[in-house]
């Protein structure tokens, strides 16, 4: 991986007080913009999976519990690819890690063509798995990559800023899926042909992005999570000799990320189902558009979170967001018309800062273990594979009642933010 002298990366000081750290550096700007765009690209893919969840229920005649296997295929790839992606990044650097992720993303998208021709749910799951291996690689690389583009003290802000554009992608995904996949009438066929064509176009676009990034020159970087705010702290980290799993805040970050993505995967998987079944007269297409609106709330939540982190500690903000979603989940489960549906949309607002903040807090002061740490936190995303099928079993009886389950997840996140995120 690209390295520079650590001392050259330490913030300048005036007297005893360190200078205010910059958000990023001028020489990193082009790379910063490109890496931020990657967050948007996997946001599109993840939320498109939730559209496919509903579409496959109808076109392939599967149950809600079976449709939860869409999320199992997507998030299960994170468990498989997390460590290999981290090892690849450590050996070949950030740039090659990004190119590998984009290549797998494109291959998975193109595999939708034979899957649609075969009208096979198993084949679609295989295509989604390959595509999601690309997403897992991008996430493993992009978070420490973004953290490396400046001072450690502003890494929370940078990652949350980039995740806001992940929110942009999450808005675009349901809009595309609702229009091209779930739309019925107006000359549109509600079958697998639209899925095949759409993913072929997506694959071509991802290949173009990969080619463009291959031409970008990446400056030499040092991961700021290997640094401390002062020389004394730096010597302490270098001499502590801790193994990765002796960093308790990291271990709790993996656990918190598991439950965070479990709640996220379940909430998103049955959002469209909830709208179609619990809101009178709401079609799948219209529910998908409301899903997109809720992703706008998520994007706004991340921008607001970046601002608030200038005044409120990230772990405290994380704990408060967890409490907010516990309240929202209870309201959703009551099936009280627009009041509950509005709470379902607001869950994405409170969810907004959770993934990037847990990720950033978990990487603090890991030093030489940063790349491996990022891999394990990405592997925590496997929670999104296990939770939706369980929620689906309950949703087959009452989709509203299934939203009690994410409360368990938010209790764990609250404990991480309020007690177990501090670096020892």
TrEMBL record:
State where the protein is found. Answer: Cell inner membrane
Q: Which Pfam families does the protein's record reference? A: MFS_1
Spell out the GO cellular component terms annotated for this protein, sorted alphabetically and separated by semicolons. plasma membrane
Which one of the record's GO molecular function terms can you name? Answer: fucose:proton symporter activity
The transmembrane segments are: 28-49, 69-89, 96-116, 128-149, 161-182, 197-216, 250-276, 288-309, 316-333, 339-363, 375-395, 401-420
The record's annotation in PROSITE patterns points to: MFS
Coiled-coil regions listed in the entry: none
Q: Which residues form the Major facilitator superfamily (MFS) profile domain?
A: 29-424
Annotated membrane topology is: Multi-pass membrane protein
Q: Which UniProt keywords apply?
A: Cell membrane, Membrane, Transmembrane, Transmembrane helix
> InterPro entries, from UniProt?
Lfuc_symporter_FucP (IPR005275), MFS (IPR011701), MFS_dom (IPR020846), MFS_trans_sf (IPR036259), MFS_TsgA-like (IPR050375)
Any idea what this protein is called?
L-fucose:H+ symporter permease
Identify the taxonomic lineage of the organism of origin: Bacteria, Pseudomonadati, Bacteroidota, Cytophagia, Cytophagales
Q: Which gene encodes it?
A: fucP
């Amino acid at each position: 991986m690209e390295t520079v002298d650590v001392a050259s990366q330490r913030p300048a000081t005036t007297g005893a007080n360190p200078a205010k750290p910059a958000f990023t550096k001028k020489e990193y700007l082009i790379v910063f913009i490109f890496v931020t765009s990657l967050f948007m690209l996997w946001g599109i893919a993840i939320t498109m999976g939730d559209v496919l969840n509903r579409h496959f229920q109808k076109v392939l005649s599967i149950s809600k519990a079976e449709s939860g296997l869409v999320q199992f295929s997507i998030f299960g790839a994170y468990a498989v690819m997390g460590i290999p992606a981290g090892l690849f990044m450590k050996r070949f650097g950030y740039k090659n890690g990004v190119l590998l992720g984009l290549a797998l993303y494109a291959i998975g998208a193109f595999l939708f063509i034979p899957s649609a021709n075969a009208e096979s749910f198993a084949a679609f799951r295989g295509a989604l798995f390959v595509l999601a291996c690309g997403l897992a690689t991008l996430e493993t690389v992009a978070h420490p990559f973004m953290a490396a583009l400046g001072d450690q003290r502003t890494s929370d802000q940078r990652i949350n800023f980039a995740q806001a554009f992940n929110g942009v992608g999450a808005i675009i995904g349901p809009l595309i899926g609702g229009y091209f996949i779930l739309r019925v009438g107006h000359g549109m066929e509600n079958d697998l042909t639209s899925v095949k064509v759409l993913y072929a176009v997506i694959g071509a676009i991802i290949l173009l992005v990969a080619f463009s990034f291959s031409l970008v020159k990446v400056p030499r970087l040092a991961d700021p999570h290997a640094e401390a705010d002062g020389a004394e702290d730096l010597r302490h980290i270098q001499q502590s000799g801790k193994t990765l799993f002796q960093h308790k805040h990291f271990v709790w970050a993996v656990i918190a990320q598991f439950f965070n993505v479990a709640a996220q995967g379940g909430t998103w998987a049955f959002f469209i189902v909830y709208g179609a079944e619990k809101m009178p007269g709401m079609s799948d297409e219209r529910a998908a558009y409301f899903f997109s609106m809720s992703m706008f709330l998520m994007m706004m939540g991340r921008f607001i979170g970046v601002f608030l982190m200038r005044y409120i500690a990230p772990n405290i903000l994380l704990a408060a967001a967890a409490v907010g979603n516990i309240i929202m989940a209870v309201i959703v489960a009551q099936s009280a018309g627009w009041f509950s549906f509005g709470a379902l949309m607001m869950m994405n607002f409170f969810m907004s800062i959770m993934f990037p903040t847990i990720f950033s807090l978990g990487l603090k002061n890991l030093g030489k273990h940063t790349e491996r740490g990022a891999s394990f936190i990405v592997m925590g995303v496997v929670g999104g594979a296990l939770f939706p099928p369980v929620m689906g079993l309950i949703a087959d009886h009452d989709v509203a009642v299934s939203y009690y389950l994410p409360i368990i997840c938010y209790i764990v996140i609250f404990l991480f933010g309020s007690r177990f995120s501090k670096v020892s």
